[in-house]
Amino acid sequence: MCFQQKMIHSLFLINCSGDIFLEKHWKSVVSQSVCDYFFEAQEKAIDVENVPPVISTPHHYLISIYRDKIFFVSVIQTEVPPLFVIEFLHRVADTFQDYFGECSETAIKDNVVIVYELLEEMLDNGFPLATESNILKELIKPPTILRSVVNSITGSSNVGDTLPTGQLSNIPWRRAGVKYTNNEAYFDVVEEIDAIIDKSGSTVFAEIQGVIDSCIKLSGMPDLSLSFMNPRLLDDVSFHPCIRFKRWESERVLSFIPPDGNFRLISYRVSSQNLVAIPVYVKHMISFKENSSSGRFDVTIGPKQNMGKTVEGVVMTVHMPKAVLNMNLTATQGSYTFDPVTKVLTWDVGKITPQKLPNLKGIVNLQSGAPKPEENPSLNIQFKIQQLAISGLKVNRLDMYGEKYKPFKGVKYITKAGKFQVRT
Amino acid sequence: MLSLLPVQKLLRQLPAGPAGRPKKTAGGDTAEEVTSPVHDDLKEMLDSNKDSLKLEAMKRIVAMIARGKNASDLFPAVVKNVACKNIEVKKLVYVYLVRYAEEQQDLALLSISTFQRGLKDPNQLIRASALRVLSSIRVPIIVPIMMLAIKEAASDMSPYVRKTAAHAIPKLYSLDSDQKDQLIEVIEKLLADKTTLVAGSVVMAFEEVCPERIDLIHKNYRKLCNLLIDVEEWGQVVIINMLTRYARTQFLSPNQNVSVGDAKDAKAEAASLAKRKPYVMDPDHRLLLRNTKPLLQSRNAAVVMAVAQLYFHLAPKAEVGVIAKALVRLLRSHRSVQYVVLQNVATMSIKRRGMFEPYLKSFYIRSTDPTQIKILKLEVLTNLANETNISTILREFQTYIRSMDKDFVAATIQAIGRCATNIGKVRDTCLNGLVQLLSNRDELVVAESVVVIKKLLQMQPAQHSEIIKHMAKLTDNIQVPMARASILWLIGEYCEHVPKIAPDVLRKMAKSFTNEEDIVKLQVINLAAKLYLTNSKQSKLLTQYVLNLAKYDQNYDIRDRARFIRQLIVPTEKSGALNKYAKKLFLAQKPAPILESSFKDRDHFQLGSLSHLLNTKAVGYQELPDWPDEAPDPSVRNVEVRGAPQGAHVHGRAKVGASSQEPESVSEESGSSSSSSSSSSGSEEEDEDEEEGSGEQSEDKEEEEEKRLKRKEKEGSQKAASGSTVSPTPILGVLGTPASSKGRREWVGSPHRSLGPSQLLSPAFGAVRTYELLHRMAGEGLSVEYCFSRRPFPGDPHMVAVQIQISNNTDAEVKSLRVSEPKPLSGMRIQEFPEIGMRLAPGDTVSVVMGIDFCDSTQAANFQLCTHTRHFYVSIQPPVGELMAPVFMSENEFKKEQGEWGTGTGTGRCMDTHYPSANAHPPFCPLCRPCRGPRAPRAAGRG
């Protein structure tokens, strides 16, 4: 007699030193020894980033993700779309983040009961049940300092004593009976520039990855519509389930009844290269001399196409070749560190002022006798520009229907470097 | 029962505790497990009266379970608290129970009655939670109880409880698969459910219990397609995957006429093409493609992937492209998501290269990518390479070769080799580049290059003796066995191109023979044999020497090979006929190796599946069937249309009359058979969709109809002019708006006086348009639609009957639906429908008829629609045509009327007298567009 058991069987949380600090089974119990296969793969991979997300073992399949120094390893017995499990595990990690402010081993260990209650609600027999944070928060209240004090005195609990209604409604993402004294709706338009700049300074690849994160604290059942000055920019968008797709298709307006609290409204991609302005340029000269144990390093960062805004929070990180022993540099601005173990050079520049361009210059000491490194390292740049969406996206207006009060509304723009890499 | 035994045995052996745990565990707590005083303490707390103590104890127990420690000896103490009033204690007890019930079956039975009580609770959430826990307890004795509970819950009023029932089905099935037949019945029932809440869960149950019963889907196919966008994300994935399989069995391949490209036998293909009817996509196939497309914009990567694979497997070639953008977007996500997506993109990019070409640059590699991602991106880039973009790709590859990540560099060299074999134009460029790499300082890079060069040289050896010479020199330095073996093979194979160097290489290798790796030794023997055959003068002794060394080698493969080769090449009296052919055997033309992607042909696994990722069939994988040659009967998906306002028959009238005259009967109907009303509203949706789908066709039809009508009109008018008709002719009163409203009233009133109700005609046209009165969103879940039923409103002939259909999409019951505060404009009157006293359960639909006298104006009638909690302002605005009624009158009567009215004002615009022609229907304008249809104005003046 054979029977199938689909979806997620068990979950193990494993920290970086290989301790299984939490396990949860939704069906019959699977022994921890199944994780040995995972440890084996982990050893083989050397780097945590390279542990294959799917591992096949004689009786099970292990699908894992790595988030915030924790491996979430799920045990699967039969065919299931791997992305289904991966996406769910990320949702679990997001929920922990949402509940405890961080998704760390200590936070999980400190709140192990809440974690267990959450996992119990999120999966039923291995199939996702309630994954919306609004529903979960109705079922299980997130811990706060005040509440834990009150609980310890009165013996009351974290479990909601009212039964949740959101799950039953048409709008499962919003909880019922929301009330605020100050009604606010904030939108953060965050754009990240992903770019690869080649040796000569020309752009090999650039695109903008944008998101609109919302923090909505509105009473009742508000029905919002958000319109843009230039909605045509958004041709590759993914939506929160609350958004009415048809309205977007026909009118290019985001119409939705929002979840309560923080959530990601949309994410979008602007990819046509001529639209992507690159706000900084980098001049670099990195060379290693043949038959000598030293090299030269000279990097200057300057602003470019930044729409008159200041580029700030500039940080450069470089993975130097293995042969580099030490670096002897002087920075005209900010400070630098070099870790001789990981060979990572970090230069914290700060704000760029066009009058005096920041420069980092000096000598690279190489292992004596080792051959000159073949490769030049690539420079990873981070920066921030406040009050600017580099794609030019602008929110036109926000209208609210369905409720009578006047909400306070706000939009904030910010541009950051995403995966911004300069090849040398 | 049988199925459980091994599991239990296993559990007994491994008491889930740290006992049998391997090396890597959080050590140090083993004491806790053994020391019983701790547990005594917990038992005491559990027995106490204070909830806070109980809670504390349960929390500690759950923490133990979480760390994988055994807490099973507390079972009796815990199970007592199953009926505890404190909700958190109760929940934690459930957690404990589900974890240990399997081990302590007898004790677990003590808790069952609590859940059975819960199943009868008036609160739907408590019913659901009781079912959930009950079904999670893996105790075989309670199978009958579970079966009963599931069956009951499957017909529960609350969709949430029904959803829980769907979840419980796979649980029971895994406990006792003998229940399959009964469970299939429940699944069949739940599949008919039309709420979005249930859809995902029941399809999941279907996939686990009876994925082979594809016939259960037929009737629900269109409904599932239409509900899809509103189902929660996880359910969407399951439904889409199931529908992909379904579509592969039920529809024809949309690419069958296009597949000439990979035809093996052109003639047969042509013949079969000729035989085949031109391909027309089944509207249901189109429906699926259309309804899944918006989901490409889901935030959930699993949903996007599911739609992508659906399009890849089901869509016509020309349409598959839409998924590329969405997949590329996923590449920005977490590493593990990237990994899975890239695997699938790699497979897709082989079959449909053009699709991803515009996104080539999105696959460019950053030095910060993890190696496994780099290698997958490289795979995709290589698949995408063609004559036009190869130069850009090669430039990228040049950067990659300088990377610090050596595994990645090796993969890049392989990729260059593949580009060179696939694209002849760049072969020389690639080869030169690779030769340059031979002087690289890193041995791995050199070795990899040698291996790839070897493969490339095989394609055109004659021109490259220089390279072979260069490589021969490398044997002094390079130590990687695979590379050494490759060089030796090359020299042996092409020894005629390098006659001077080859014997020298053999000499060197003979010297170091004993220290070589096995694969190198084998190649040395090969080289020796080939040289012996081509240049025996210089190499005879060397060959003998090598063969002698090999004769005493430790490895039997090498000894074997040496013996074999000696017999073959060295002529002795014993050696047979083969000796003559030795040269042919060794120096035969060898086909160049084909460098292929490892992702080739992986698409025979359903994309996005675990099996595809692992490239082996995973347990429980459902094969994706091939398209059928002949389409199965599409009518199996037709759903009986019930209750739709399609009164084409005369007796239809009686039915409506009954329902509008006695509103109680309406409520009775919808109350008694919620399933029937559900099916009807489901089918209505489908009707709409079909209309949309076949929009073009029906428009064409309409045009034709129009033409036909015009012809008839002409004929009719000619005949009318000739005045040859005597017999009473049914006509349709057709009149424009008379000039004076006063006069109009008199006139319009007259038919009602003169014509008995029997002379009023039923409309003969099919489609009645439905308008929206209250949108689901605006109505907070209550949606209201109306249509003009085009039937007389009983009681008041001046009123237009408006059929109103109210659906409750909320999760709560809606009570006392009524109309209030009508605010008619002057002269307008509204006959409200009687308050619907009955409760409208979630998901139910009710239809009522109300009458409005619009006073022949097209002004809107405004009123409020009230429920027990809310008021909604709504308005109904009639199109002109809906204000007319079909009447019967003889031609003479018509002429009389016309004479009285038409001449006076000249507004008798279009008159039509057509005969009860071949058409068996009551003669009435076949058009549904009201303004074109010749009809008499219905409503008349008052009094």
From TrEMBL, chain A:
<dbReference type="InterPro" id="IPR036168">
    <property type="entry name" value="AP2_Mu_C_sf"/>
</dbReference>
<dbReference type="GO" id="GO:0005794">
    <property type="term" value="C:Golgi apparatus"/>
</dbReference>
<dbReference type="InterPro" id="IPR018240">
    <property type="entry name" value="Clathrin_mu_CS"/>
</dbReference>
<keyword id="KW-0968">Cytoplasmic vesicle</keyword>
<feature type="domain" description="MHD">
    <location>
        <begin position="182"/>
        <end position="423"/>
    </location>
</feature>
<dbReference type="Pfam" id="PF00928">
    <property type="entry name" value="Adap_comp_sub"/>
</dbReference>
<keyword id="KW-0472">Membrane</keyword>
<dbReference type="InterPro" id="IPR011012">
    <property type="entry name" value="Longin-like_dom_sf"/>
</dbReference>
<dbReference type="GO" id="GO:0030659">
    <property type="term" value="C:cytoplasmic vesicle membrane"/>
</dbReference>
<dbReference type="GO" id="GO:0030131">
    <property type="term" value="C:clathrin adaptor complex"/>
</dbReference>
<dbReference type="Pfam" id="PF01217">
    <property type="entry name" value="Clat_adaptor_s"/>
</dbReference>
<dbReference type="InterPro" id="IPR028565">
    <property type="entry name" value="MHD"/>
</dbReference>
<dbReference type="InterPro" id="IPR050431">
    <property type="entry name" value="Adaptor_comp_med_subunit"/>
</dbReference>
<comment type="similarity">
    <text>Belongs to the adaptor complexes medium subunit family.</text>
</comment>
<dbReference type="GO" id="GO:0006886">
    <property type="term" value="P:intracellular protein transport"/>
</dbReference>
<keyword id="KW-0333">Golgi apparatus</keyword>
<protein>
    <submittedName>
        <fullName>Adaptor related protein complex 3 subunit mu 1</fullName>
    </submittedName>
</protein>
<keyword id="KW-0653">Protein transport</keyword>
<dbReference type="GO" id="GO:0016192">
    <property type="term" value="P:vesicle-mediated transport"/>
</dbReference>
<keyword id="KW-0813">Transport</keyword>
<dbReference type="InterPro" id="IPR022775">
    <property type="entry name" value="AP_mu_sigma_su"/>
</dbReference>
<dbReference type="InterPro" id="IPR001392">
    <property type="entry name" value="Clathrin_mu"/>
</dbReference>
From TrEMBL, chain B:
<dbReference type="InterPro" id="IPR026739">
    <property type="entry name" value="AP_beta"/>
</dbReference>
<feature type="region of interest" description="Disordered">
    <location>
        <begin position="644"/>
        <end position="757"/>
    </location>
</feature>
<dbReference type="InterPro" id="IPR002553">
    <property type="entry name" value="Clathrin/coatomer_adapt-like_N"/>
</dbReference>
<feature type="region of interest" description="Disordered">
    <location>
        <begin position="15"/>
        <end position="38"/>
    </location>
</feature>
<dbReference type="Pfam" id="PF01602">
    <property type="entry name" value="Adaptin_N"/>
</dbReference>
<dbReference type="InterPro" id="IPR016024">
    <property type="entry name" value="ARM-type_fold"/>
</dbReference>
<dbReference type="GO" id="GO:0006886">
    <property type="term" value="P:intracellular protein transport"/>
</dbReference>
<feature type="compositionally biased region" description="Low complexity">
    <location>
        <begin position="659"/>
        <end position="682"/>
    </location>
</feature>
<dbReference type="Pfam" id="PF14796">
    <property type="entry name" value="AP3B1_C"/>
</dbReference>
<feature type="compositionally biased region" description="Acidic residues">
    <location>
        <begin position="683"/>
        <end position="705"/>
    </location>
</feature>
<keyword id="KW-0813">Transport</keyword>
<dbReference type="GO" id="GO:0016192">
    <property type="term" value="P:vesicle-mediated transport"/>
</dbReference>
<keyword id="KW-0653">Protein transport</keyword>
<dbReference type="InterPro" id="IPR029390">
    <property type="entry name" value="AP3B_C"/>
</dbReference>
<feature type="compositionally biased region" description="Polar residues">
    <location>
        <begin position="719"/>
        <end position="728"/>
    </location>
</feature>
<dbReference type="InterPro" id="IPR011989">
    <property type="entry name" value="ARM-like"/>
</dbReference>
<keyword id="KW-0472">Membrane</keyword>
<dbReference type="InterPro" id="IPR026740">
    <property type="entry name" value="AP3_beta"/>
</dbReference>
<comment type="similarity">
    <text>Belongs to the adaptor complexes large subunit family.</text>
</comment>
<feature type="compositionally biased region" description="Basic and acidic residues">
    <location>
        <begin position="706"/>
        <end position="717"/>
    </location>
</feature>
<protein>
    <recommendedName>
        <fullName>AP-3 complex subunit beta</fullName>
    </recommendedName>
</protein>
<dbReference type="GO" id="GO:0030123">
    <property type="term" value="C:AP-3 adaptor complex"/>
</dbReference>
